Amino acid sequence: MKTILSVHSLTKKFGHLTAVNNLSFTIEKGNVYGILGPNGSGKSTTLGIVLNVVNKTSGEFKWFDGSKSTHQALKKVGAIIERPNFYPYMSAVQNLRLVCKIKGVSEGKIEEKLQVVGLIERKHSKFRTYSLGMKQRLAIASALLNDPEILILDEPTNGLDPQGIHQIREIIKKIAADGTTILLASHLLDEVEKVCSHVVILRKGEKLYSGRVDGMLASHGFFELKSDDLSVLKSYLEKNASFGEVKIENGMLTAFLKEEMNALELNQTLFSQGIVLSHLVKRKESLEEQFLALTKNSQP
Amino acid sequence: MNRLLQIEFIKLWNNRASKILILSYFILLTSIALVAAIKFDIGPIKFHLAEQGIFNFPYIWHFNTFVTALFKLFLAIVIVSMMSNEYSNKTIKQNLIDGLSKKEFILSKFLTVVVFALVSTIFVFVVSLILGLFYSDYNELSIIFSDLEFLVAFFVKLVGFFSFCLFLGILVKRSAFALGFLVLWMIFEQMLFGLLGWKFVSWETAQNIKGFLPMEAMSNLINEPFSRLKAVQSVAAQMGESFALNYAVHWYEILIVLLWSALFIYLSYAILRKRDF
């Protein structure tokens, strides 16, 4: 697998505040990565460092095989950070022409990329007349101009209305389907859950987890059960070694698994014990629950 | 280099305010020719400025470079705002992310400044040449092309001044404040001069020290040309005065301004490199 970006014990201090602390991770070609963390956890600072706009305090990062300088490497990267920044007095086409000049690519792709993000009808309007959603879509078009090896998006749906959020997500999915590597920073879990295959979780500048989204917790999921006599059910499950925590909430019993077990097996066992279920669902924790569990566990 | 200039050109030329200011600046440069039309004809008093010898070669080089240098304030506004707008629109951040290095960013601004200065110099040269050919009393080639060092001084003066503007734009990040700072700095140089001469050293030494400060060094490059005029000198002679000014352009004056320009550009780069966006 080709490595696109490797970050090694990166640290950034703003005075006494450590925004990023000894962070290491690697990004391989072809995956969709999420950087997840609450506000102020160092996501944007990390991206700022690898994008040459924030100076690191210590550590290293390497684009591709590390043979090119950062600004040369960035010509093969497409990135949008926080808010879309363009020249307000210039039209979409003029702005994109400027980006082509900076990246050193031909202007032939401008029309095509504006088509992808659905701005072709407004291509001659000045940037300042655009709505936030349109500005964000122009930013994506601009990031795609050089057919980048990796697309970096920092909170791309922040501040958009539901329609705008939907449009942006559709565009991201389309780009991901084409095989472009994507790095998506967000504090919105469902966003990451919907598009990402891998995730790096940050809290207060420190890495809590990095790896596949579904491997985030060594979790086997849990059962939601209902029966006529919940207390009998509960005492039976508590004696069973396969189950960890068992709790009753609002007339529903939730039992967390300690090892793999399918619903059929459980149903058979319980029935043979004379316990008849009226409700049986096996579920995995949502990313949100996993995330909260993860950040809670490592609280100092 | 071409690429960097094109980048800056797209940014400037699509901005209506910059475009208008740049155009007015070059129209003003040309309009110095209109001075030739100044003519008073009130009964016995006949006065035609063009016939007072201001368009005589080689004096015209001195006169025109001095007068047109006053218009540089127009371009100063353009330059300060082309720098500070990058901050207020946050486009500098986007430029860096898109793959422009910090060095290239500064270089594209500096090259633009040099081009402005160069085009201005060529403009002044052409306009003066045409005016001179019309009105000058002397038309020998050797006279026409003497004292051309005033054009060199003019070019260096503009590069120095614009580099200072560029530096202030980066340092202060807001165009209005940067221009305010520029005025403040001019006052500061005079105050420093006054303070030194009054309390610490002789007035002569204070004058010498002042000559090393950027704004004063730039204005020393081309001394005022008016007292060189025959009419003014004859009036002064009648009143028993004589001017002993040294009008020439000195190499060390050019060197001081060039050093300041280099320092301003280097400091701009140093600031940019240290800053987080």
From TrEMBL, chain A:
Top-rank lineage group of the source organism: Bacteria
InterPro entries linked: AAA+_ATPase, ABC_transporter-like_ATP-bd, ABC_transporter-like_CS, P-loop_NTPase
Domain ABC transporter stretches: 5-229
Keyword terms: ATP-binding, Nucleotide-binding, Transport
Pfam family, one: ABC_tran
GO MF annotations, alphabetized: ATP binding; ATP hydrolysis activity
SMART domains per the UniProt record, alphabetical: AAA (SM00382)
Record family assignment: Belongs to the ABC transporter superfamily.
Protein name: ATP-binding cassette domain-containing protein
Organism in which the protein naturally occurs: Euzebyella marina
TrEMBL record, chain B:
Annotated signal sequence range: none
Protein name according to UniProt: ABC transporter permease
Protein keywords: Membrane, Transmembrane, Transmembrane helix
Organism of origin: Euzebyella marina
GO cellular component: plasma membrane
GO molecular function terms listed in the Swiss-Prot or TrEMBL record: ABC-type transporter activity
Pfam families registered for this protein in UniProt: ABC2_membrane_2
Lineage of source species: Bacteria, Pseudomonadati, Bacteroidota, Flavobacteriia, Flavobacteriales
Record bears the keyword Nucleotide-binding: no
TM spans (from-to): 20-40, 60-83, 110-135, 150-172, 179-198, 249-272
